[in-house]
Amino acid sequence: MAKLVIVRHGQSQANRDNIFTGWTDVPLTEKGIEQGQMVGDELARMGIQFDDAHTSYMSRAIKTMNIILERIDQLYIPVHKTWRLNERHYGALSGLNKSKVKEEVGADQLHRWRRGYSEVPPKLKHRQHDRRYDRLGVKMPYSESLAMTQKRLLPYWEDQIAPRLMDGKNQLIVAHGSSLRALIKYLDQIPDDQIDQVEVPNGKPILYEFDPALNITKKTFITMDGEENGNS
Fold first, then answer.
1. CA 194/CA 192 separation, integer angstroms
2. pLDDT digit string (tens) for 102-129?
3. Which residues form the active site (predicted)?
């Protein structure tokens, strides 16, 4: 029985300030650091021993991962970083205040951009470049829908995470709200028109348990007070 824990990074400054971030690096807040510590303490209490950890190329996820691994005394396990777990790219919305965008385009349009499956936010006029992606030969998107995020995430799941789970190895993923929503949609087989109801809060772990055929046997929303709310 293999276990998978997925965690959205702790609160970032952009989360606090209600700003679209996407592939832009922003630091964690003090609250975000504390959230990472609380997740680590709870996972330590649960006694889960991980074989691998996976995170994105974004510093807010990497730092949250490091905090968690330190709190569970598992800094020694392999950590795999991949751009495929990055937050979705919000295109021309990146850096804008969500409340101001809502005033300009309306609540319905904002909701479709933020929570819809196939809706693509306004695209950048010029492609951005960043050495961390240029060195991989990866072209940064002009903008991404959740569907596009899922499409670039799933090959990593299929090649790097799923085989390890099938071998009975526990895995930890620390990533982002949209990339984790895309993964949850796939794992839970959520219809396109219902994914807008799924939220992934900062620092709230979800535990999946799988049989050797990678069928989900249990899904648990881990709380920070020692109690677990689960459904199988």
1. 6
2. 999 999 999 999 999 999 999 999 988 8
3. 9 (tele-phosphohistidine intermediate), 87 (proton donor/acceptor)
